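Recall that a protein's primary structure is simply its ordered list of amino acids. Everything else, from secondary elements to tertiary packing, is in principle encoded there. The following example makes that idea concrete.
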Amino acid sequence: MTSPFALDGRTALVTGARDGIGRAAALALAEAGADIVLWGHHDDLDEVANEVTARGRKARTVNADVGDDDAVRDTANRVLADEQVDILVNNAGVIRRGPALSIDEAAWRSVLRVNLDGVYQLCRLFGGPMCRRGQGKIINVASMLSFQGGFNVSSYAASKHAVAGLTKALATEWASNGVNVNAVAPGYVATANTAALRADARREAEIRARIPAGRWAQPSEVVGAVVFLASAAADYVHGHVLAVDGGWLAR
C-alpha cells in the first residue's frame, strides 16, 4: 500500500533553500520521494543539491532575489518551461529589527517586498499552472508573528500576518481547482534569522522560558508539517496555518 505521505513522481520548488528551514524542507521532501528545484538568492546551493541527489532524487538550482519582481518572473518562467512544479514552498524571507519610530522606510519596504510581494508573485506564477492542471500544493512559511506583534519587528510581523491572510484568500479561490494553499507557522527556530536573539542572553532566556517545550526548535523539527501539507494526506486541508511552536500559542 502506498503511503499517503509519499511524494514519488512529484517536483517541489523550495525558495530560500540554502540553509535553515528551506534546506531542511528540501531534504525532507526529497526523502519523501520528490525531485527538488532549489531556489536561492546567491549561487551557493551546490552543497544542498548534493544532499538531495544523495537521497536518490534530482536536484536543480536557480538563483534570484525574491524581492525583485522581474527576476522572479524570469526565473519562474524558465523553470516552468522545463518542468512541472507540483509543490511550491515559499520559505525565503528577511527580517529587519529595530523600533518602529526609528527604523528607516527602506528597511520596512525591503521586508514587505520579499516576505509578501515575492510570496504573492510566486503563488500566482506557479499556482496558475496548478489551477489549470487541477492539482497542486502551495505551502507558505508564516510565523508565530502571524498571530502576535513581536517586539521591534513591525515590518516582519506585518508581512507574516499578511502571509497568513494571503494563504487563506488563495485557498478559498483555488480549492475548487484542486490546489491546496496552506501555511506552516514556525515558533522560535535556531536559524540565521534568529542568531541575534540567541546571542542576547537575557532575551534568549526570556523566550525559552515562554516555550512550554523549554527549548528552541531545530529546522528539521518544522518540516514534517511541510511534507504533510505537500502530500495526499492533506488533500482536504485548505487555508490552514499550522503552528509548529513547541506549545507557544497554547500557553
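The longest helix spans residues 105-133. The CA atoms of residues 8 and 33 lie 4 Å apart.
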